[in-house]
Design a protein that fits this description.
single chain, TIM Barrel, Immunoglobulin-like, 8-stranded parallel β-sheet, 7-stranded antiparallel β-sheet, 25% helix
Length: 451
Amino acid sequence: MKFVLLSTCIAVLASGGLGLPEAIASAQPTAIFHAFDHHYSEVEGFVCELAEQGYSHLQIAPAQKSHPSPNWWARYQPIDYSVIEGQGSEADLQQLIQTAHSCHLKVIADVVLNHMANLPEFASLQFPQFSPADFNSRCEINYSDGDRTSETDCWLGGLPDLDQTQQNVQAIQQAYLQKLLDLGIDGFRLDAAKHIAAETIKTAYIDYIDQASHGTTWNYLEVITDQDTRPEDYNWVAAVTDFVLYNTMRSAFSKGGDLRSLRWPAAIPDARSVTFGRNHDTILALNDNAINPYDEPTDAHLATAYVLAREQGTPLIFGQDNRDIPYLSAGVKFRQVMRQRGEVGSNIREKVLTAIDSPTVLLMERGSEGFFVVNKSSAAFDTPILNLTLSQLEGCYRELRYGFGVAIERRNNHQKYVTRWDTWNRGGLAIQGRDALYFVRQPESQCTAAP
C-alpha cells in the first residue's frame, strides 16, 4: 500500500461553488456553533475551545433590548434597536467578539427585524423609536392560500408587525446593523425572513450590509418553508435554512425510517444552505409549537452527525448538543479537515456507499480523504467482510474520536477490502448502537504494517 501525507494546516473556507463574489463566498462557515440563549460573558469563557474543535463561526442570541421576560423567546421580541441589552451589555458583547477574533472565530448576530414585542402597552405606544405609522395593520396569516401577502403583511403570532417599506423603519434597523458591524460582527442571521418581502430584504438589508462591510460578512435567512413559501423565494438573496433536508432526515432517522433514503436526499440544491439536525424551532422542550420535532431527541443527534459529515451545506450545531453528545465534536473536526484537504485539491466529494445495504447503518465516503459511519439502531452492527471496490477509499484511516486505525487494501483479485478494523486480527466494519464514527486519511507513517 502507498499512503499520501496531506497537509492539515490552518483551515481555508470553501466558497460552495456558486460563483459569488470572492469576498463574500470565501467566508462560508465550516460549522456554526449556536450559542442559544447563552449570556455573552459565559460564551466568552469557552469560545476559544470552539475554535480548537474546528468551528469557524459562533452565532449569538439577539442583542437588541427586548421583552423583559427571562424566557428565551423574549430575546426575539424587540423593544428598542438603539440599545444593546440582550444576553449582556454592549461592553459584554464587544468583549466576546474581541476574544472570539483573537481565536480566529467569527461571530454571527441573530437579528429580529420583522416584528416588535407583544406588550400590553402597545396600544398606547409603545416602542421609543417607532410611531403607529411604522406598523402594518393587524391581520391573520394564512400559510396555504397560495398568496404570500398575509405572510409579509400580517402579524406573526400576535407580535406587532413592522412595515419594512417605511423609510423610518429601514433607517432605524440599518443603524442597528451598523452598530453591530462597528462592534466587529462578521455576519447576520435574519430571523423570520419569510415575513418580509424578499426584494425588501435584499435592497434594505443585505445590500446595506454588503456595502457597509465591504462584502466581508456571511449572512443567512431563516426561511421556514410551507405551502406558500419555497426556498427559491429567498435563496437568491442569501443562504437560507434547509428545512427540506431537515424533514428528509426526520423521516430517515426516526423509528421505522430508512437511512438508504439518504443516498439521494431531498434538500435545497444550494451548497450554502444552513443545515441542522435540530434547532430551537424544532425542539419540543423549548417550543409548544415546535416544527416537526423528533419523538426521540437522540435521533436528532444522529441526524446532526450526518449533517457534519456532508460536503454540502453549512452546519448549524445547537450548543447544548455540542456539549452533551461526544461524537459531534469529532464531526466538527472531521468537517474542518475535509474542508482543508479540499482546498489543496484533494477529492472530498460526498457519496453514500451501497456496500452496506441496511436501513439502520449508513456509510458515506468523502472522496478518498475520509469516511463516516452512523448506526441508528440500538444494537451493534458487525460485518467481518466489507468490499469497497466501488469506492474511492484506499489506504490508512484514523477514527477521530476513539483513535483506532482502519486499512483498506487491494487483494490479488484487485478488489478492495477493509483488511484492518482497529486490529489486524479483523477486517470488515463494527460500530456500536446509536453511534457515529468519523475517519480521516492518514500518512503511511501512521499505519503499522500488517504482520
